[in-house]
Amino acid sequence: MDAVVKVFCIHTEPNFSMPWQRKRQYSSSSSGFVISGRRVLTNAHSVEHYTQVKVKKRFGLCGEAAMLTVNNDVFWEGVSPVEFGELPALQDAVTVAGYPIGGDTISVTSRVVSRIEILSCIHGSTELLGLKIDAAINFGNSGGPAFNDKGHCVGITFQSLRQDEAENIGYVIPTPVIQHFIQDYEKNGAYTGFPILGIEWQKMENPDLRKAMGMKPEQKSVRIRRVDAAAPESGVLKSSDIVLGFDGVDIANDGTRFVFTTVSVPYLRSEYGDNYEYEAPMNLLDKLFHATPQSPDEQLVVVSQVFALNGKPVTNIRRLAEMVENCDDEFLKLDLEYEQTVVLRTKTAKATTPDILATHCIPSAMSADLKALRPWT
């Protein structure tokens, strides 16, 4: 525990509305820990926009991690750097050490790993591998190490859910991300970031979609939606290519069900709560409140936004229902926003509709107003 330190910082954020001046200064304290090479690891938000840091000289930032050093030999006397351990497994015990608010001495809390998944890093606006632990990360605790039962560091504590969202849930940056950051800096003299593939992809959970794409029943994959024109992959991949594996690892499928409805304020309030203006996707709100209809009866329809069915444009929910019921093609192919595609086998979709309605206690496949306007049947 002698390698765990407290980091004091004075911050002065830039004023993006008036870039010729900065905002008012404020101070913070957080945690960090000593690693080899006379360096200290902590959270990026612990030292962002710094004007003065007691553990001085920032080396670099990595999403939610920062590396510092101290230009004082006395600081390093008698301090043994931590050793890194392997990525823990679910239910492995971890010990979080740091200096949370409520006292001046070190605090140690023992918990277990409850989830390992890709997490959104608030500070870095990126998605990286993360650990969820059943212990809240309190103010001042961020940046401290998480140790396994052998005393090896398995990550950096970095954020927690708000108290009104959940209790006793915190997150840890695991060692693979930390090691990438350290090795990147040692190799390049600066943090250059994580690689980006340069593509957008779609899940292939639907068997009809996979068959329509020429896949075998046992194959699993994802579908390429778009390729960044500036990325090297643009010379190899294109939209609607199927990727079966990556670096020798097979790609799995996820399953979902689809429901079509028009977008309205009650729908948004049901999906995103009373604060739907702030919680709903911005592109959905923009289309609902600001987009100009291309015809008098045009409606905004979700899933995502249905642009076409089997190549024919969809202008409203009634038109979509008419096209689905009258479809005689082998597949129902729905073209969505952002180059996504949903494919259903027509006969199977229509035949299983009654079972789906019964299973989910849905009284009807369509609303009463659409039933009343069914001249197509």
**Shape label:** elongated
Mean pLDDT: 80
Total count of strands? 23
Percent of sequence in beta strands:
25-35%
Using only C-alpha atoms, the radius of gyration works out to 26 Å
Instruction: Please give the share of residues in helix.
Output: 10-25%
Q: Could you name the ranges where pLDDT drops below 50 across 5 or more consecutive residues?
A: 56-60
Instruction: Please report the number of helical segments.
Output: 9
Structural class: alpha+beta
Strand order of the largest sheet: 4-1-2-3-6-5
Major sheet, described briefly?
6 strands, antiparallel
What is the subunit arrangement here?
A: single chain
Distance between the termini: 75 Å
Describe this structure in words.
With 377 residues, the protein is of the alpha+beta class. 19% of the residues lie in helices and 32% in strands. Strand 5 and strand 6 form a beta hairpin. Belongs to the peptidase S1C family. It comes from Gossypium hirsutum. This is Protease Do-like 9 isoform X2. Residues 305-369 form the Protease Do-like PDZ domain.
Task: Please outline the helices and strands.
Blueprint: E1 4-11, E2 26-35, E3 39-43, E4 50-53, E5 58-62, E6 65-68, H1 73-76, E7 93-98, E8 107-121, E9 126-133, E10 145-147, E11 153-160, E12 170-174, H2 175-188, E13 199-203, H3 207-212, E14 222-227, E15 242-243, E16 245-246, E17 249-250, E18 261-262, H4 265-272, H5 276-279, H6 282-290, E19 301-302, E20 306-309, E21 312-313, H7 317-325, E22 331-336, E23 341-345, H8 346-359, H9 368-372
Antiparallel strand pairs: 1-2, 1-4, 2-3, 3-6, 5-6, 7-8, 7-10, 8-9, 9-12, 10-11, 11-12, 13-14, 14-15, 16-17, 18-19, 20-21, 20-22, 22-23
Family: Belongs to the peptidase S1C family.
Domain Protease Do-like PDZ: 305-369
Keywords: Hydrolase, Protease, Serine protease
